[in-house]
Amino acid sequence: MKFCKKYQEYMKGQEKKLPSLGIKKLKKILKKCRGDCQRGRPDVNGFLNIQNCPQRCPVCDGTFFPCLVEEMSAVVGCFNERAQKLLDLHLAPGLKRYLFWFKSKLKRNHVALGQEGKDLVTYALVNAIALRKILKKYDKIHYSKQGQAFKSQVQSMHIEILQSPWLCELMAFQINLRETEAKTKSRTAPSLFEGCYLQFNDGKPSLCCELFDSVKADIDLTCSICLDTVFDPVSLTCGHIFCYMCACSAASVDIVDGLKAVEPKEKCPLCRETGVHEGAVHLEELNILLNRRCREYWEQRRETERVERIKQQKEHWDSLCRAFAGV
Known about the structure:
By secondary structure, the protein is mostly helical. The protein has helices at 3-12, 23-40, 58-91, 94-103, 110-142, 146-156, 165-184, 244-250, 284-293, 295-325; strands spanning 196-201, 204-211, 215-220, 233-235, 241-243, 281-282. A hairpin with a 3-residue loop joins strand 2 and strand 3 (215-220). Helix 5 runs antiparallel to helix 6 and helix 7 (165-184) packs across helix 9. The radius of gyration is 23 Å and the shape is globular. The protein starts with a helix and ends with a helix.
């Protein structure tokens, strides 16, 4: 069975109607584009002058890519919203948790949460495959690499679903839930998404998730600033993950003010994109997972950062007192 048909059957099988890529419609657009190219773009040697597309192709510029951007934006927006709601429900403390349970239609147990998380991870990876397939089809028709170039543009627009910080959180959530059930020796719960796992290569951790069709999400968990395992991890909107204190230091703000005080002109330390600190996501599930797996390192790092945080808080309040006193 071809992927297009598998994809359509998967989306139809969802209990709730979710945004998806109109692969069939996009293929029709490409078919029309191919027909136009074959009818009117031969070069002096009789071959198609495919180098002029998409720059001079009204079909691609005016229909295919804008349609793809719109559909991917809807998919990523839906995924982020549902993932955030699920994790807020799981991590909410005390009375707030009961209020979430009361408003939510999910059953009040971890099995329902785990299944919902599994479905969201699958939804993300299936749509990542769909995007890869349609861009590969585009390149095949045009004998170009414009599809791959467009994928880079999608990443810069923050509508690449594998780039979403909520995917990282859901993967960590699945592993945490699986380990919790293993400790309690729960036999009634169904098996969770076994494709998510934490691996260490030369002591460097990474989150991995595999699905059919050889698609693999591999998220590096080494902070590119301190070059160590991320501690109190935060993901900027560009998708890069750093230690919270490292991200604050790189953006020239103290830990008291936090990333909300970062100027819009400040850049990501890795990709140098601006405006990525507003909307940064604290990765709470990932923090729990690394705390469990790297206990000794975590305790050492916690003590080190505690001293630094106290120092910065003291300096912050001293400066406020001096400003108030007019010194």
